[in-house]
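Re-running the complex after MR caught last week's input typo. The corrected sequence lines follow. Everything else is unchanged.
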Amino acid sequence: AQKITQTQPGMFVQEKEAVTLDCTYDTSDPSYGLFWYKQPSSGEMIFLIYQGSYDQQNATEGRYSLNFQKARKSANLVISASQLGDSAMYFCAMSPSGGYQKVTFGIGTKLQVIP
Amino acid sequence: DAGVTQSPTHLIKTRGQQVTLRCSPKSGHDTVSWYQQALGQGPQFIFQYYEEEERQRGNFPDRFSGHQFPNYSSELNVNALLLGDSALYLCASSLEFGGRPGGIQYFGAGTRLSVL
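Corrected-run output:
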């Protein structure tokens, strides 16, 4: 079984500052993928970034980077230069390798960007 | 390139009724998964369809059933609705052999179901 833990129910960040959203995971699968999704109030789950368990480098996508520490089973999301449009729920998620791509989500962190 | 589309966007039903939700996957995707997201929670996996067959199922009762069509679109059916079925229902599509461990699922905007 896979488990995702997000311990920050809510976070505030000043516009243009960086913010880190925490995520730890637990799995017995030798190979897996880690994801972050953004969910605005409209409800759509927007894919942000992906990290494979065997990737040597931390993933980056524009202002998003994933701080992957495999030994500590953590996959924190770093958002640089926060914008007002970044205010949303953020979900950490994971999926095992192979065709059975069931995604397990955490409970989410609500991020609010302050002008 | 059209993303994942879901219909309807909102739905109101009464207890005991049946509902059908629809999903068209992202162009080129062949796998469809359905999730239920209760208020204040993360999405919970219902089931996944590939090659028109259900191949993995989460912890949901048989009242929840689905179908995948030859064009990869999918339906989620819920029978004998309960008040607790009120939630946002999300459809996600992916490519079976997407080249990345664990794949990447792309989600639609969801169908918000209210059961009165």
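None of the earlier attempt is carried over here. The mean pLDDT of chain B is 92. Chain B is about 0% helix and 50% strand.
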